[in-house]
Amino acid sequence: MKVGIVGATGEVGRTMIKVLEESNLKVDGLRLFASKKSAGKKLKFKDKEYTIEEISENVMREKYDYLLFSAGGNVSRRYAPIAAEAGNVIIDNSSAFRMQENIPLVVPEINGEIIKNYKGIIANPNCSTIQMVLALSEIQKQIGIEEIFVSTYQAVSGAGNKGIQELLNQQNGINNTAHFPDIIMNNVIPQIGPILENGFTEEEMKMVNETRKIFNDDSISVYPTAVRVPVLYGHSESVVFRIKKDIPLETIKNLISATENVVYTEKLLTPLMVAGSNITYVSRLRKMGKNTFLIWIVADNVRVGAATNAVRILLKHLEMRD
Ligand code: 2RA
């Protein structure tokens, strides 16, 4: 299996390598691509060293079984279409193509079937969307969801290596604020990405639009507030959802647990507990009134929210090949 990773030196790219190592996929041709700055550096895969190559249009025209992209929207917009034109299957972690009508936006456990024998660009959803739709997917499928009210508590690793470094620097007394609008140490910042004309942030509108696309249901109303918190790994989400009919609490608990790679627990659930896991964890299920429920969702945003979902898309696509 010839696999290429574009953005191999980034937080998600490096985690993609780890998740591929953990999988049973037989990768006998791995190519690692990054910017000129990183070309020549070496990274290990299954104890073998691989030299990072500078990305170029020529290397994107070669034939791969799968290409995983996580190098930002500009790199994806420039190179993914070239790779797609060469007949490749690309799984892109950027937001560049997610809302394009002809591009599948995939969480394999929910809508993986839509990429059977698909060729071209497959979009990986935003991290905060993935864990939320995974937790709610069986409820949506079996009952139907009318409204979702979500507040996120997003780790700094969502902003990549630079986000992690900024918090660590501040904890060591270096108060740089290059990547967040304010000091993130001992603080919370209710803004991730630019604030749009409608008053919502780009991050919040991703949760609205991507949820509807993944569930293939434009009737769902999503009311998001996305917040950055001084946590290294692990996005947490407080979610209130209203469903189409009255259902007992126990049934909702069973539906949450019915989704592969989702675990419901009555135990305390924190980001520190889930960092490094590929599972989406749900706890604090409560019921208020007839059709309204509240939950707490936590997942490793770099794994569940990016690298693991991307590799799961690859494995699902491979599994369904005729
Ligand atoms: C963030 N979801 O957390 C965005 C991009 N990974 O910064």
UniProtKB/TrEMBL annotation:
The keyword Nucleotide-binding is assigned to this record: no
Residues annotated as transmembrane: none
Assigned keywords, A-Z: Amino-acid biosynthesis, Diaminopimelate biosynthesis, Lysine biosynthesis, Methionine biosynthesis, NADP, Oxidoreductase, Threonine biosynthesis
InterPro entries in alphabetical order: Asp_semialdehyde_DH_beta, NAD(P)-bd_dom_sf, Semialdehyde_DH_NAD-bd, Semialdhyde_DH_dimer_dom
Molecular function per GO: aspartate-semialdehyde dehydrogenase activity; NAD binding; NADP binding; protein dimerization activity
Enzyme Commission code(s) on record: 1.2.1.11
CDD domains per UniProt: ASADH_C_bac_euk_like, VcASADH2_like_N
Residues forming the catalytic site: C127, H235
Domain Semialdehyde dehydrogenase NAD-binding as annotated: residue spans: 2-118
Protein family (similarity comment): Belongs to the aspartate-semialdehyde dehydrogenase family.
PANTHER family assigned: ASPARTATE-SEMIALDEHYDE DEHYDROGENASE, DEHYDROGENASE, PUTATIVE-RELATED
Assembly: Homodimer.
Record protein name field: Aspartate-semialdehyde dehydrogenase
Organism: Marinitoga piezophila (strain DSM 14283 / JCM 11233 / KA3)
Taxonomic lineage from the root: Bacteria, Thermotogati, Thermotogota, Thermotogae, Petrotogales
